[in-house]
Amino acid sequence: QVDPSAKRIMYVDETDIGYIKTTELRYTDVESPSRDLTYTITTPPYFVYNRGERDAGKLVAIHNISKVERSMDATQVSKFTQLDIENQKIVYIPPQTDIGPESR
């Protein structure tokens, strides 16, 4: 079940990297440990108010990455666990191109 304290939304400036934390995303299951609670990405990041942009950034696992940078060429993750969130190993990297002044 979803933890009531989890916001399930986050805001990231286009020049920053967003570490997904339990304050944004936390589910619990009394029968399963965090390492067994798996999230599957069914739709990659997208802009709510899309004006034809295709790149809305990506979610990346950083288990073996020592320095996280916006310009890094990392593969978007398709699955991750609640334990990954608890250990801050999943990040949102905004697109490389300027997305403009509007919040999206």
TrEMBL record:
| BP terms from Gene Ontology | anatomical structure morphogenesis
Q: Which residues cross the membrane?
A: none
- The entry's keywords: Glycoprotein, Repeat, Signal
Residues in CSPG repeats = 1-104
Return the InterPro entries for the record.
CSPG_rpt (IPR039005), FRAS1_ECM (IPR051561)
What protein name applies here? Cadherin domain-containing protein
